[in-house]
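Supplementary Note 3. Input sequence used for the single-chain structure prediction.
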Amino acid sequence: AIILKEHIGFDVRLDDVAGGVGAIQRVAKIYEDVTVGAEAQSFHGAGKAFGYANLEVWTESAREVYTKHVVRTRDALDMGQVGYVAQAGWYLPEAFAAQPFSLPPEFYRAFDTRVPANEPLLSALLNESSITCSDACVVPAGECPVSTGREVLWCPSATAGRIPALLAYTPDADRGYSQEMATQHGFAFGIRFAGDAFPDLATRAMEQGQAVVVHAWRPSSYLARLAGLGLEPVRVVLPSANCGVHLQDGTGNWSCDEPRQLPAKMASLEADEDPIFSDFVSQFTVPEASITSMLGGLVDGRPAEAPSLQEEWQAACMWVRENENDGLVWAGWVGQRGVPYFADTLTAGYPFLVVLVAVVGAAVGIVLWEVGWLDTTMNPWSVKRMTGGERRWRTEVEMMIGEATGGKRHSQASIDEDQNAVIQPWDRHVEYYRGLRQRGLERQPRFWEQVEMRFKDLMTRTEVPADNAVGEPDCIRFAHHTWPCSQHSTTVRVPVVRTGAGRGRVVVQAVVESCGYGEGKAGDDFEVGDRQVVLAEGKEVALLEVPLSGGSKEWRNNFYFQVRLTAVSEGTAVLSTPSTTLLVVLTEDRYPAKLGLERRGGHGITLMRHYLWESYLRRGRNFIRTFFAMLYKPVHSGFVSILVQKFLVDHAAKQAADPDEPNVTWYYWEVILLVAVQFLSTMLERWADVVQTRSRGRTGGVRQDHRIKVFRKYVRLEQAEHWEVDSSVWLYNAVFEANLLAVDAYWQIFVFCQNLFALFLSVALVMVLAFWSSGVNNQVGSGVWWALAGLFIVSPLGVLMVLSRRRLTWSLVIRRMELEESWTGVLAWVTANGRRLFGLTERERVAIEERFVKQSKIFVKAHWNARDIQNDNQWFSQWAHTVTYCLMLLFGTFALIEYRRFGIGAMEVGTLYALWKIYTNVGKYMGNLVGVSVKMQGAVVSVRRLSALLNMKDQRSMRAQVKHWADVSQDQASMEKWWSAAGQEQDVVLQAGTTFVRPHHCKAGAQFAELMITKELRIPLGRVVLMSAHHEGILMSALGLVAQVIQPVGEDGSVRVPQGVRCLMPPVVATGSALMAETVGEELALTGVNSQFCEALAQAVGLDPNLGNNVLSIGQSQVLHIVKALLIDPDVLCLMRPMTLVPYELAPSMTKLLRVWQGCGGAPGLASMLGVPSPQDPQVFRSTRRTLVMGNVVQQLFECSALDCSITLEEYLLQD
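The predicted structure, written as discrete structure tokens, is reproduced below.
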């Protein structure tokens, strides 16, 4: 029955129910008190009907149950007989049945007394072993037929009047006398063996040919086994007119034979709904010969084994397939299915070939899509291109430390180190032990001889040498090295001035170009190209106009470009320094997206909107590509997939199963088409995933952009501006908050739009299903419309509840951020100063550790609070969705029952499944939207903090000059008036009242102390100035004011520097060399000086240009620090205790080198002494006058001359 059911395309599941009665109950789908299997009992225990079969084959032994369920209650349908006779009963060998008997042998039947129903028989046998019953034989003694063929009627002797006795089978040996009674009557008696032992024992008895009677309880299978062994059994037929009864006293007419069993087909009532199925089952027959041949192969060659259910299943399946063209069996069924070959389960090898074709086709499509079109990492060439052929799976830290590799170091550096670990020649060791002075003298002896000679000359001078500019013709230059201007300026007017004796007309050529650093972009921010400026006869100043472009729509910090004088095309004049001026365009807009000042004081919602708008402006096409790629994912999962399932169930499958449909082939092709649509949609989803992954720019486009903005802002702050915000805040913002903004702000706009679009699709899909259901039975799909109403109710609730708690969320998030900054600052300090920790005592180390642990514990508590508020906020939407989803489950199921049972409404199975899927998706989408709201609330704080840092007023000294220079350069007359006054200044002057005060909130930890100049302090140019003070912080501030590193506070005094003079003050201690360049030579090349000069000067002081910066000692770093300052060659060089860290044997030589640099023309003079090309452009004139200002120099190292100027700061300071 199972094979037939599956063969025509139906699914059958059967539980273990014994007997024909159980089969009827199963088909009738009801429960009665019968012996059932474990699964049926579990169904019954749960209060359910245990039967769920649609087709059963049963015997006539359950006639009374058949009459009840088929005739009276009509729970099942009679589909006719199978076609063969299942003659269960008693069998003996043919040889025994054919032999003559003087008297007919008495026949004894055995019953298993372990069955409770047979207990009365045992009681009867205990009373009397031979029982008389006069009416037991209905066949007269003289008419008992002779045994012929395979069936024999056994009748007792008419004279004896005896009928067959009963033998009881009991496991108790004291009560069982079966074998004894059988032996008394001359033949062995075969009992009904139970379990797996029956086929073996019964078959062996048949093979022995003895008078053994065997009960065949599965006649078809057992007789087929005997036929396979060549044995011909004979069926024993007892009187069967009246089965009778058996009584406790031993009387009764109970010697009836088991009736002939005619297997019948019985189907459940659902068969009426499928006329194809019921027609086929009613016509299907299996003749006697067919069933014998079908089961005969099971025992061929293995008589001692019982065929398993699986073997019988396979035999039946093979027989069905081999006989499907037999008209007797199939009764005209062949050819009526109309199933295409790719869906025909009867096809040989199905579904292997179909699956193979589908898998191969899908694999080819996936490979072409991934490798050929998308070029993903599934392409081996792409992987090779990414890795460059190197697939190192261990980090450099692992390989350097060696613990993860078994203690072996495998980095390339360690390999090179091992190869170079051979003993070098002795002279290399001598070189290694030499100091910088010895190395310098050996490499550049001529240079140091000239230094000594010129030093002696400088020490004997009594007058300051005249400037080489005196007597020159017109010298054309810019007024300043840098020129600040406002971002909103349309044109920048840069003054070009002339000095010298000439006053004729001069035409100068200039070029506007990128300076190679900063954010200025040619074409977008300024117009590159050649310019021309004319100095009229008798005029000392002319304005060079440089137009500015509109610039980018997104916010940027200050940017730079330069204007360079290239040649004098008319007139008698030479170019002079500064011939290049750096134009600093100071931004005045607010971050983000040039936000106006009037909108900066809000809570941050508008700020977030402008932040996202700037992200769009920055990403451009990539933003649009990511946006649309993100929108396709809900189209695939929430629209295409659901509709494909809906059409598969409620259209293709439903129409194909409709018996009134004349041609169902198209619907099979519709299934193929829908599956192809699903696969193609997945390919598009993969394309969208690749596009959004490559275009979203969360790292390169957002994280690093934020970090670059913060970095550029920080490194270009003036010295005093660094004190306003602690460095740990900048570090935290660049590392942590940049990542948070990328994930919780920028990326969330895509997640928000994606889930909002998905909600729209869900609502649209519910409306589609509602109209679909409205078309079913021409009824309104009210069961779907209320589901749509539920979506509109639940959607806004979660978001509104989250927004109502935004101030609480901000408060807790701010607390977490500020506490996280605290331990970040400690960690940053420790890691940055790790090589200096050797000087700390154990108590100091413990104190730092305790501070870090304490701050971490406080932070963790704050983090828990912020985490909980953000997590709890998401559950507002979750609870609202859970309630509506449960209502959907409840009333949707009710609607389905109404429609399926009574035809009320229009709720189909596919529609209900689709609604469940949609509501599940809605819950996910709403959870994502609420998650976006929660994350953006935390991100608002980060946006406000980032905006505060980026909008911090920087380069204030330049900003203070913008208004002044704008007024000065507004016309020719104003510029000439300014130049007539400013162009005459010859010294650096700190006016009386010049004051420096640190910010009130950052009083500690700075190198510069507060001071106030009470009388004018003048620094003469072209000389060595020795400045001293007891308070080194005040001395640092004075040097910083001279070098314009810090700016005076207030309006009472100012610092006047001659126009065009460039000042430089290096840090007291050299830092950061290894970050700027890897070797000494590379770092010196950053000065912009030719490599020959750099290498020669480095060798002169004992430095190897190829030496790595990371191995320099602190003294070597300080020497390199001073050499860089000499190569930069400023007009005024301010140094604070420059020789403090210089190696003691080199310090006297370095002091002489500094004095020679000052007195012999700066870097060009040193280049001539080294015999290398001068760093000075020969087409540009520069004064040889240099000024060296040093603070608190060691008198033993620095020999003073008559021209040196000594300044004691205490004479100029405000004192109590």
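The CA atoms of residues 243 and 256 lie 4 Å apart. The mean pLDDT is 74.
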